[in-house]
Amino acid sequence: MEGIYDIFRGGEKIGKAEVRREGLYYRFRCCCDLTGEVMYRLTVTCGEKTENLGIPVPDADSFHLNTRLPVSRFPAGTPEFRAVPKHEPLQQGLWVPISPETPFAYIERLEHAVMERRDDQAGILISDEAPQDSDPSQLYPHE
């Protein structure tokens, strides 16, 4: 398994992973080009087994990850490295911008929401599976 491998995001090559054996462990040194807008974790798949390497951190103009995992976790075969979103992308739902000047009418739906940034504006993306108690017209009740 030792060597240098490409890291993929979908079908796109975004970086390199170096694998070295250190006794009973493999040392993974990964460097990839990410924007930082979406948090990614790196995974390595070898045969039927996939292991989570962790989340790369920004360093200068790229993202880096250094970690060690036991050799016993990996079957024989050629590893495949992938960058996957830390959480599943939520394409469906209601996005509500957050502003200190505006009352937030969706407080009871926050357990079904994640924070998301769009065009440098912070907001909350509420899953479609959340209860539909709030009326969107109530976003700005003082108007």
Describe the structure.
The chain has no helices and eleven strands. The chain is mainly β and 143 residues long. The radius of gyration is 20 Å and the shape is elongated.
Strand order of the largest sheet: 5-4-8-1-2-3-7-6
Radius of gyration: 20 Å
- Spans with pLDDT under 50 lasting ≥5 residues? 130-134, 137-143
In terms of structural class, how would the helical and strand content be classed? mainly beta
The mean pLDDT is: 84
Report the portion of residues in β strands: over 45%
Share of helical residues: under 10%
Task: Give a quick account of the main beta sheet: strands, pairing sense, barrel closure.
Answer: 8 strands, mixed
How far apart are the termini? 63 Å
Shape type:
elongated
What key attributes describe this structure?
elongated; mainly beta; three-stranded antiparallel beta sheet; eight-stranded mixed beta sheet; 143 residues
Quick structural overview:
The protein has 143 residues and is an all-beta fold.
Topology:
Layout: E1 3-9, E2 12-22, E3 25-32, E4 40-46, E5 49-54, E6 57-59, E7 62-70, E8 80-85, E9 94-97, E10 113-118, E11 121-126
